[in-house]
Specification:
By secondary structure, this protein is an alpha+beta fold. It contains 14 helices and 22 strands. Strands 3-2-1-4-5 form a five-stranded parallel sheet, sandwiched between helices. Strands 12-15-18-22-19 form a five-stranded antiparallel sheet. Helix 1 links the parallel strand 1 and strand 2. It is globular, with a radius of gyration of 21 Å.
Length: 427
């Protein structure tokens, strides 16, 4: 097949890498790509957020299937545009993508369809939000979410009324996240452990992919600000087969069926971020694409003909509910630029990539990287994800950090505790 992958991060590098592992030899184009993707696919400097430009590229290249990595083109209607021109694309329509682009929509949708989630209230103005806080109906800590897209950073867990008020002011008055914070969702804080579950769906049927656990906070011990993700491991030892069946029955299938019933048929990757509470699994958030860095540890576990699986989902012909999965766990460690998730510098020369890849069972996925002559330099906040497999979690963790510590650039930092939860969380 001739394939177009849209995006430029480590998630897209993992998608391209996995497609390149198929027994069939695919011709892969990536827009706009990065300095790691260009070793596996032909990269084209087309803006991933411009649906019209992406449609032109797919036509010029004679692409059989387009796979969307990030959320932005989906929320801008790239799936609708491709469908209108008879081009096959894996990813939800703009209306279906509201599961991620509007937390208020997602919460109301879950309420309508009986999907378990935290109690909440949507606030359209700072005054309303402050009044909700004053009632103390959710207690403390309390969760405050910007309604729109904020690159994984628009969530604050406030320990008291002062911090909650500051979060409201930052989102709704100071507009820290732009229009994404013009409306907020305030919800109860759920007790439990988090896990990520992924489904590939054609709008009716769903293939459950390997589970994962993410690490959102910037620093060890889940301290510091929220980020897009500082590392992950797969599968989650918290989710056994019995619990996964319950998640399918109470969350994933009701969402897929509910979206179709509301005229928003969902095709693509459905990500459910879950809290495993004493009452059972409840939804923290939905994403309408693979997570990052979860994709980097989940995709290497999937065996078989991946491109055909994606094509069937895009075409509405996914007549299966399982896929072949490799047994060994994966651990992924993100190496970031100093200052991330706030201000950071770019253009720092990266050394040690070859030495890292020489560690057995290791793949290095590029995120914020670029080529500058013969050098590879930093070009983003999250720069690389170092992923390792192992016969058990302990070996995977050891290999990942052995490799990650061989990579250097000015200001590089990483969490030192990725995978520790896998060593202690056993059901």
């Amino acid at each position: 097949m001739k394939l177009l992958v849209i995006g430029s991060g480590a998630r897209e590098h993992a998608l391209v890498w996995r497609l390149a592992q198929d027994a069939a030899r695919h011709d892969i184009v990536c827009a706009p790509g990065n300095a790691g993707i260009d070793t596996l696919a032909r990269v084209v400097p087309v803006d991933a957020g411009d649906p019209e430009a992406l449609l032109r590229l797919a036509g010029q290249e004679g692409v059989d299937l387009t796979v969307v990595g990030p959320e932005l083109p989906l929320t801008r209607g790239v799936a609708d545009l491709f469908a209108a021109h008879g081009r096959l694309l894996l990813g939800p329509t703009r209306l279906a993508a509201e599961l991620e682009s509007s937390k208020a929509f997602a919460k109301a949708f879950m309420t309508r369809h009986g999907v378990p989630t935290a109690r909440y209230q949507v606030c359209e103005s700072p005054d309303v939000a402050m009044a909700v806080l004053a009632t103390r109906q959710f207690g403390y800590p309390v969760v405050i979410k910007a309604d729109g897209l904020a690159a994984g950073k628009g969530v604050v867990i406030a320990s008291d009324q002062l911090n909650a008020s500051m979060a409201i002011r930052g989102m709704m008055v100071e507009r820290r996240f732009g229009d994404a914070g013009s409306r907020v969702v305030i919800e109860e804080f759920m007790q439990g452990q988090e896990a990520s579950v992924f489904a590939l769906t054609d709008g009716r049927h769903a293939v459950i992919l390997p589970t994962a656990q993410d690490h959102k906070r910037a620093y060890d011990g889940d301290a510091g600000p929220n980020t897009g993700g500082m590392g992950a491991f797969a599968p989650s030892p918290l989710v056994d087969d019995q619990l996964l069946d319950r998640i399918r029955e109470t969350i994933l299938q009701p969402v897929i069926d509910g979206m179709r019933a509301e005229g928003r048929e969902f095709r693509g990757f459905l990500y459910a971020g879950l809290m495993l509470t004493a009452e059972g699994p409840k939804v923290v958030e939905f994403n309408v694409r693979m997570g990052d860095p979860e994709a980097q540890v989940v995709l290497p576990m999937i065996d078989g003909d991946f491109a055909t699986l994606l094509r069937d989902a895009a075409a509405g012909t996914l007549f299966q509910d399982t896929c072949r999965v490799r047994d060994w766990p994966r651990v992924g460690v993100v190496i970031a630029s100093a200052g991330y998730p706030d201000k950071y510098e770019t253009g720092k020369v990266i050394n040690g990539l070859g030495a890292a890849c020489a560690v057995p069972g290791v793949i290095v996925f590029h995120a914020g990287t670029a080529r500058r002559g013969a050098e590879i330099v930093t070009a983003g906040g999250r720069v690389l994800t170092v992923v390792a497999e192992g016969r058990d979690y302990r070996q995977a963790v050891s290999r990942a950090y052995d490799a990650a510590q061989r990579i250097t650039f000015e200001g590089a930092f990483m969490r030192k505790d990725i995978g520790r939860k896998a060593l202690s969380s056993r059901r």
